[in-house]
Amino acid sequence: MPIIEHADVRRMLLAQKVRVEGGLAFALYCARLVDDIAVASSEESRHRSRLLLELLTPMVKCWPAEQCLEAHKLAIQVLGDAGYARDHPVERLYRDNRLSMIHEGTHGIHGLDLLGRKIMQEQGRAMQILPAKIEATIKGAISVGGLAAECRTLAMAAGQLMQTTRRLISALRAGSGRRGRAAFRRSSRRGRARVLRRQDGGLSTLHALRSAARGCDLPSA
């Protein structure tokens, strides 16, 4: 019986398809923002596109690199022993793609850039633009047959994103004492945030993030 007849193999193939096409769509959206910046009809529109692109840049570097690596892992699993050996190119593709999580910048550094710079810039204006874009997408898609459940899922995820971001910003504003650091660690775990800690245990990174957080104004839930 061909392996495609196995339900678990089909599951893994579909999981690869979702990750690869999702990463491609994400990258193409950011590429479109580059074009929007170049051909914008007004300076305000150009500035909004630039802010959104800067916010998404750490994400578009990290998410495809991580999730497409998972797709390669599944490709190896689908082929079994033949996937691990050099009978097929998937083991080489896995090794090649593993480098993307390094030379595009480590996730820890991108996380600091996202939270400490991109979210904070211009009092959190980029994080006001992103939810508005997501809401407009939901409104445009919810009338399409069969997409109502996906729209509800996206709306829920967007709400969780904003809630987690506000919690992290609040924790950064809490102060430099032990209580503030503990609140930040709890918020980081809840939001699955990756925070780079200096090996000497210093708090210079936390102080820098907190300074930026004081002027950040995120939209309310």
Describe the structure in your own words.
The protein is mainly α. Helix content is 76%, strand content 0%. It has 11 helices and no strands. The protein has helices spanning 7-39, 43-79, 81-84, 90-98, 100-103, 107-118, 121-124, 126-141, 148-173, 178-190, 204-213. α1 (7-39) runs antiparallel to α2 (43-79). The protein is globular, with a radius of gyration of 20 Å. The termini are far apart. Residues 191-213 have low confidence and may be disordered.
Major β-sheet, in short? none
Strand tally, please? Answer: 0
Mean pLDDT: 81
How many DSSP H or I helices? 11
Contiguous runs where pLDDT drops below 50 for at least 5 residues: 191-213
Rg over CA atoms, rounded to whole Å, is 20 Å
Helix-strand pattern, N to C?
A: HHHHHHHHHHH
Structure keywords:
76% helix; single chain; 0% strand; mainly alpha; 221 residues
Please render the helix and strand layout as text.
Layout: H1 7-39, H2 43-79, H3 81-84, H4 90-98, H5 100-103, H6 107-118, H7 121-124, H8 126-141, H9 148-173, H10 178-190, H11 204-213
Helix pairs in contact: 1-2, 2-4, 2-6, 2-8, 6-11, 8-9, 9-10, 9-11
Condensed summary:
76% of the residues lie in helices and 0% in strands.
